[in-house]
Amino acid sequence: METVSSVELHRRITLIRGDGIGPEITAAVQEILDAASVPIEWDEQPAGLECARLYGTPLPPQTLQSILRNRVALKGPTTTPIGTGHKSINVTIRKILDLFANVRPARSLPGVRTRFDNVDLIVLRENIEDTYGGIEYWQTPDVVQQLRIITRPGSDIFLRFAFELARSQGRRRLTCVHKANIHKMSDGLFRERFYAIAADYPELQADDILVDNLCMQLVVRPESFDVLVLPNLFGDLVSDLCAGLVGGLGVAPGGNVGHGRAVFEAVHGSAPDIAGRGIANPTALLLSATQMLRFLGLHRHAERIEEALRLTLASGLRTRDLGGNASTREFARAIISNLRPLDFTEYPHPLSASEPTPQPMSSLPEVAWQLYGMDLFVRSPAGVPKLPERIGKLRLQMISNRGTKVYPGPTPPIVLVDWYRCRYLAEEPLSETELLEALSTLTADGVVWMHVEKLHHVNGTALYSRAQGEE
User: Fold this and answer.
1) What CATH number did the domain enclosing 379 receive?
2) CA-to-CA distance for 334 and 161, rounded, in angstroms?
3) d(C-alpha 86, C-alpha 149), whole Å
């Protein structure tokens, strides 16, 4: 009869200590998990500011390979320079590993004083798309453009995960958060896909809310929400708001989940001002670690550690950020002392060994996709550009400046910048050649254009926003 070695029963986890207070809180969490006899082994790897100095990158190849090999990582906070310097390690890891869902629970804790004591939310944030693609351009010396990308396949993958997670955790309601009254196409697509997938989960209540209304509702009656589902940027903002409802980022866990891979991290900063003083709060990273244990199927280990944490906080022992005076080590030792005796055996469940293979994806491969015009972005420092009203099949419909129509009709009394959107449309489909000929004509006339967005119809429906001034 074959036997399974104890090594095979332990899950190997990549461990990144991070910058600032990262090494201190990571050591505290390690000590707690080891004392709790959690069946994992650590594969420690470097990342952060020191790596940037030593290797020229804050995320060395060997660290990334470790995460790819182990498929699960626990990460302390790392520092990202603002404005200049290296890219965010968090964003880099999420994109390379396709960790498309950010999971941020917000649950009231005993002994942590806040305005509310009955918060129990999960914020689910799409993690790859939206403005976090970082696609930005200087269009003119005065104008920067950033692209906001929302896709049907990306939304479907994330939203399916959201409904599955809600069902697996016994949740009853999911609320889609958006700004589709203004972002009619991008947020409109996200909201549309939410309800399309909700139809497969009739036992779960699905509704939606505008993000500004949600923020007001959260600070009045947060107990009225259960699971919040958001695009990337709104999710980033709302998840921190929800952390504030339960005591701040020092008690806010976070997990980034993809297909059989996940990285769990404290979502607060590296706090270099208190690094090395032994006063940092390890709660956020510890709760992230219990999220990790649940991802691995170690639910009873997670419950045992969370119970010890709650008993410690209820006793009045807290770190300084929560109004107490306990050191990082004292707090960790108190949690260990509150661990109930281990009276069960539990091992990680096997993760799928199959890797998702990169492949092109289209949810609408067979459609009548026809070219009907263009939005041409023109630089004109001298004022509203003088453009021909007709070029072949194309007719000039509208010129706008920062979203306000300035042609046809009188120019409103607004501040004009040197960047104009000029919409040309045809009454019948165009060929690519006809569009290129129009661009050549405009260029020959001295028009300085920055970029062009082609406008299409699909099955007779316009796939572009209605321009101000259109009939």
Assistant:
1) 3.30.70.1570
2) 36
3) 23
